[in-house]
Design brief:
Blueprint lengths: L3 E2 L3 E5 L6 H8 L9 E3 L2 E8 L2 E9 L3 E5 L7 H14 L7 H7 L3 H9 L11 H10 L5 H15 L2 E4 L2 E4 L4 H5 L3 H5 L5 H15 L5 H5 L4 H9 L6 H10 L12 H10 L8 H8 L6 H10 L4
Antiparallel strand pairs: 1-2, 2-6, 3-4, 4-5, 5-6, 7-8
Helix pairs in contact: 5-9, 5-12, 11-12, 13-15
The chain binds a DNA duplex (13 and 12 nucleotides) through helix 6, helix 9, helix 12 and helix 13.
EC number: 3.2.2.21
Enzyme class: hydrolase
Keywords: DNA damage, DNA repair, Hydrolase
DNA sequence: ATCCAGGAACTGT
DNA sequence: ACAGTTCATGGA
């Protein structure tokens, strides 16, 4: 049971703490994002379940998340999958109280959990999307990374138009696996990133690389190892996928420039912190490095 | 023009 | 294991 199914909608009891509006702020961080749309306090997203496109409209009241289906109500089996998806997307299954207890004693995180109270990790449940997004974002500025992602989606992803708004789905691994390097290069992906993404798409298409097999690989270190043996996936990209797709709370992209800039700002430093300095700060975050990182990322969107 | 951006592979020691 | 080099391309 992932939620209460009212046939034409689903409501999911939200855990404490949870703030839908904080999640919407993170989701609205780029005006180039086309994988969801925010209109007033409603969040729209296109999903594909059992082979069919389904548009969802998500909203919240103090105790529930409500999922509606403006373009057609799917069958009960699909509704149940959608409830599970939304739960994963907002990381609703996690008990945040240990994180908040730790953070309330931490110099850096203390203010962040007050400011962004109820923010949850916004996850990327699709493994191919998480890895492709990681590779896309390697060593380029975020603005350009969003541009590349948008081009890839609008070139190769499926879409649905409802009341004049077009909603996009991230391209499937199957679709991308069938492309040539040139097809991504022309969108201004570098040759190497195009190679990496195509190879990973093929591995996912062929069932060699799956979320389940990664999760069964064992400890977080073993999962990281099985990711970093893949060409194009280093420590940073694997940590990102472990954070936002596999939802491993200890995942920690310690070399992430976004994290560095957030810490620089929080600590009013005139330079980015050194890795050794971050290791010192993060020693207090043990068990919750992923959430600490996520809240720090959030602090950059002020 | 210059530096840098939510890195990773490759090469040499 | 560790350090330096190369790749790659737009944003500010």
């Amino acid at each position: 049971m992932n939620g209460i199914d009212h046939e034409s909608s689903i409501s999911i009891k939200t855990p404490e703490p949870f703030s839908f509006s904080e999640c919407l702020i993170f989701l609205g961080r780029s005006d180039q994002e086309v994988l969801h749309q925010i209109h007033d306090d409603y969040l729209f997203k296109l999903l594909k379940m059992d082979g069919s496109l389904i548009l969802i409209k998500v909203s919240a009241d103090p105790n529930f998340i409500l999922i509606e289906f403006p373009d057609g109500v799917p069958n009960p089996a699909v509704r149940s999958k959608i409830a599970a998806y939304v739960k994963d997307w907002f990381d609703l299954g996690r008990d945040l109280s240990p994180f908040y207890a730790m953070a309330s004693q931490d110099k850096i995180l203390k203010q962040l959990i007050q400011k962004y109270y109820g923010l949850r990790m916004i996850c990327i449940p699709d493994l191919f999307e998480a890895l492709a997004w990681g590779i896309t974002g390697q060593q380029i500025n975020l603005t350009f990374a969003y541009t590349l992602k948008k081009r890839m989606i609008q070139q190769f992803g499926e879409h649905l138009t409802y009341k004049g708004n077009t909603f996009w789905l991230f391209p499937s691994a199957e679709k991308i696996a069938g492309l040539h390097i040139e097809d991504l290069k022309i969108l201004q992906f570098s040759s190497r990133k195009a190679e990496y993404i195509l190879e990973i798409a093929k591995a996912i298409r062929d069932g060699i690389l799956t979320k389940e097999s990664l999760l069964q690989a064992g400890s977080p270190d073993q999962i990281q190892e099985s990711l970093t043996v893949i060409r194009g996936i280093g420590k940073w990209t694997s940590s990102l996928a472990m954070m936002r797709c596999l939802r491993i709370p200890t995942a920690f992209p310690i070399a992430d420039v976004g994290l560095h800039l957030a810490l620089k700002k929080q600590l009013s430093m005139d330079r980015k912190p050194f890795i050794e300095e971050i290791e010192g700060m993060a020693s207090y975050w043990e068990g919750w490095q992923a959430y600490a990182t996520f809240y720090l990322w959030r602090s950059r969107y002020e």
